[in-house]
Amino acid sequence: MAAKINLGKLSERELMALKRGIENELRTSRTRTIAAATQELQDAARRIARKHGLTVSEVLSRKRSSRKAPVPAKYRNPNDPGQTWSGRGRQPAWFRQAMDEGKSAESLET
Questions:
Q1: pTM score of the predicted model
Q2: 73: which residues sit within 8 A by CB, 6+ positions away?
Q3: With contact defined as beta carbons under 8 Å apart, do 109 and 75 qualify?
Q4: Measured distance CA(11)–CA(22) in Å, rounded
Q5: How big is the CA angle at 64 (ends 62 and 67), to the nearest 5 degrees?
Q6: pLDDT digits (tens, 9 = 90+) for 8-60
Q7: How far is the C-alpha of 37 from the C-alpha of 50, rounded, in Å?
Q8: For residue 76, what are the β-bridge partners?
């Protein structure tokens, strides 16, 4: 452990310099900790992949399906039946126009 410092005897300039030094050392320490944890994680990933006869890139490069199935249409444009809307996301212009004309959402349901 470092020697004790009597902070009361330091000037404001010395205190600020000490504060900057401490903040820099904390950042450096955090960077070292992250690097060590990253290395440990990489080593563990290599061991596990090797155990299963794979490489780390084979294990980590697997594409995952992030797309969800499309939601069925809930509303249909009476003027153009090819235009539909699921009721999610932004309202299409034809739906807003129908609402402005006084139609109910129920009357537009498929």
A1: 0.48
A2: 84, 85, 86, 110
A3: yes
A4: 16
A5: 155
A6: 999 999 999 999 999 999 999 999 999 999 999 999 999 999 999 998 888 88
A7: 20
A8: 84
Other Cβ atoms within 10 Å of 9 Cβ, number: 7
Give the amino acid at 1.
Answer: M
Asked if 95 and 85 count as a contact pair (C-beta separation under 8 A), the reply is yes
Hunting for tokens 């994680």 — which residue is that?
41
* pLDDT confidence bin for 65, thresholds 50/70/90: low
Backbone angles phi, psi at 91, to 5 degrees: -70, 135
Tell me the C-alpha distance between 28 and 66, whole Å. 37
For residue 39, the one-letter residue type is: Q
Structure tokens at 44: 């563990």
pLDDT tens digits for range 93-106: 999 999 999 999 99
